[in-house]
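Lay summary. Proteins are chains of building blocks that fold into shapes, and those shapes determine what they do. In this project we predict the shape from the chain. Here is one chain we studied, written as its sequence of building blocks.
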Amino acid sequence: MTVHTESRGVVAVLTIDRREKANALSIELMDELRSTLGEAARSHSALVLTGAGGIFCGGADLGDLRADPDALQAALTALRSSMLDLPVPVVAAIDGPCVGGGVELAMACDVRIGSRTAAFEIPAARLAVAYPEGGLEVLRRRLPHQTLSRLFLLNERIDAGAAVVAGVLARVAEDPVATAVESLGRVGDLDAGTITDTKHRL
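And here is the predicted shape, written in a compact code that computers can read:
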């Protein structure tokens, strides 16, 4: 298992733990994460997604990308769609680098809280990889145009402080997981149906 789940009251904390590969998104990992997120959402009022080892996600697994890019993209599309369809709030707690497909993963969450080491980068142009339209659509919906241009056209690396101004992060915290759990603690007292309906219309 590369995704660990910990219950903290009404909140489930899901940790991607593939640190030997910088928590890169392999097909197997994405399938496991999709299943684990769905299971956790059925028994908790909110979810926190984070990465182990001081890194949120190093992007797509390059081995899977070279071996079967279509299958990798299909797995990412399925993961992204399932995350957007989850009935409960999902907060990304981002510590360290968040690269490529990891940015898309973070943007599929409803709120993003980062540590001071959080940093965002999309190296598509450097790797000569055309970014899929489905992923771009999610990023366009959730980020300002100038932020996307900095990430894609200038290949900038946006650090934590600048990420708040750029609309990537909601806030910076010393312990983003603890801050996320604390902010979600009141969700169990709110009307779940209203949250689900509003989440899907935002």
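What the prediction tells us: The first helix runs from residue 27 to 43.
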